Amino acid sequence: MLELANIRKVFNQGQHNEYWALKGIDLEIPPAQVSVLKGPSGSGKTTLLTILGCLARPTEGRVRLNREDISGLPERFLTEIRRRTFGFIFQQFNLIRGLSAVENIILPGYPGGTPRAQLLARAEALLADLQLAHRRDAKVEWLSGGEQQRVAICRALINDPEILVADEPTANLDSKLSAEFLLILHRLAESGRTVILTSHDPLVVESAVVDRVYSLRDGLLIEVQHARRAAP
Amino acid sequence: MKPWIEKQHHLIDFTAQSLARRKGKSLGLLVVYTLLVFVLASVSLYTHALRNEATRILAGTPEIVLQRLIAGRHDLVPPGYVERIGRIRGVQKIEGRLWGYYYDSVLKANYTFMVAADREIAPGEIVVGPALERTRGLSEGNGISFRSYSGELHTFIAAEVLPHESELVSADLVLMNEADFRRFFAYPAGHYTDVALWVANPLEVRNVGVKLLDALPDSRPILREEVLRTYASIFDWREGMMLALLSAAILAFGIFAWEKAAGLSAEEKREIGILKAIGWETGDVIAMKFWEGFLVSLLAFLIGYVTAYLHVFHFEFTLFAPVLKGWAVLYPSFALTPQIDGLQVATLFVFTVLPYTAATLVPIWRAATTDPDTVMRS
Ligand SMILES: Nc1ncnc2c1ncn2[C@@H]1O[C@H](COP(=O)(O)OP(=O)(O)OP(=O)(O)O)[C@@H](O)[C@H]1O
Ligand SMILES: [Mg+2]
């Protein structure tokens, strides 16, 4: 469970272009559910997501992970938590070109020192699960958009994270692929993972897989919608 | 400990893959770097071997060589001269020496003819250096004729060929017995070429020299320590020249390395951002880049050093010989005894691998400490 208390975030503090992207946000992300942050462009979705995923620190306020305050931890510990607890899927997929699908997938496992054979076994299981086993050794730049995203999902899952974080995951996908992606998220949430995404894609926001929608505007949380989970 | 090793293993894997992915850049760097090590190691190996060789040769020579001068020029030592030196305190042994040069018009080469003091050679026999074995096809038991300066032919049997290890001193040597030597050169009886004096105590050498000048005002004592000093200063001067040239090369390389490393491509920066976002620590990224710099420089060091070794000891320092021509005056042509000095290797390693590895780390530090959230905004 992730909780934010009075989160504020400023960019370029003290300079002429000082900008408060988040102006005091309190929210709770329920475990094993799919939560979506929505709002107009520039409303602070990505900023909030980076704070939820421990990629950035808030200027003010507290972040609690499973009741433990993690906002004051030094970078090393934060990175450790990020690696163990979070998996990330980026809008541009952010795969490393020139490496094969499977090499990309096991990258987050390197710092932990897990033996390579073990990482490969896990990666292959994930690839099989997402029907991508046949593309195991293909260089990622040769994969289609949908395939790249599935590689990115595998990479996000390699350290078996509790929470999956995705920024605009469907922005580069057509509606068929988007629907497939949402199905995958649904399965992940059912198997106990917490999923957080940002999106202004109505297909995502209105999808039946989504349990909660947080609406942002100008750095403030203006509405939280609960949905009853139903099969999509 | 185990995960730490496993992690370094992963990082090295990743680095090796990165180098392979950026073939052009990696290869260019490797070539330039290897070249630098090659030049440095060549000069260093060469001067070192030469110095050792010179020291070894001089170690066997007498402390003082006495020449007789007439009108300021080296002349034969007349009979009775050695006796006139008499007993000087501290001198262990006095010996009149016989040696001279012989020009072989067949090969257009100079040989050094010499009477061996420390061995008996039968009349009509000679002991030759390896150069003669090579160039005149001489081997043990063969005969060879030399035409003396008076015009008559003298035939000798080669009784033995000197070992190759001592080639620098003995390559062109022809040893024979005294009677043969005097007959061949028509050397006046009782005369010698010069006089060798062995002095046991190094502190006495200078004294003995002064006494020699007192007793024989027409003589010139040449002290070994002075010869050594002259050699040393020639070596030092040459080496200094080379080092000045090389420091320019190193500087250029430093700038090159800095450029390469500092100019992290956008692609590399993006990759570092991705790695940080997916849970790599700053330290992991730096360690990865450290391995990159280390692998490149280690590889360059090994290739450069091995080629330098071959260059110096198997190809006679061909590439740089013209630069160091001065040394060739001392020793016309010879192969150096291969040798590697641990300290020298270590010095070279420290001066090439460390600066490069360090130079790659500085810009990485900046890239690696960027916030992981920047990836979200690319
Ligand atoms: N590093 C930064 N420096 C300065 N301003 C920033 C920085 N990052 C974000 N901002 C600003 O903060 C505000 C919120 O940005 P954010 O990326 O969170 O918006 P968003 O809701 O994700 O928008 P979009 O839907 O376009 O992705 C924007 O006005 C943006 O310009
Ligand atoms: Mg955004």
Automatic annotation (TrEMBL), chain A:
Keyword rRNA-binding carried by entry: no
Name of the protein described by the UniProt record: ABC transporter ATP-binding protein
Domain ABC transporter: 2-231
PROSITE patterns the record matches: ABC_TRANSPORTER_1, ABC_TRANSPORTER_2
SUPFAM superfamilies: P-loop containing nucleoside triphosphate hydrolases (SSF52540)
InterPro entries in alphabetical order: AAA+_ATPase (IPR003593), ABC_transporter-like_ATP-bd (IPR003439), ABC_transporter-like_CS (IPR017871), ABC_transpr_LolD-like (IPR015854), MacB-like_ATP-bd (IPR017911), P-loop_NTPase (IPR027417)
Organism, scientific name: Thauera phenolivorans
GO molecular function, one term: ATP hydrolysis activity
Keywords: ATP-binding, Cell membrane, Membrane, Nucleotide-binding, Transport
Any Gene Ontology CC annotation: plasma membrane
Domain of life per record: Bacteria
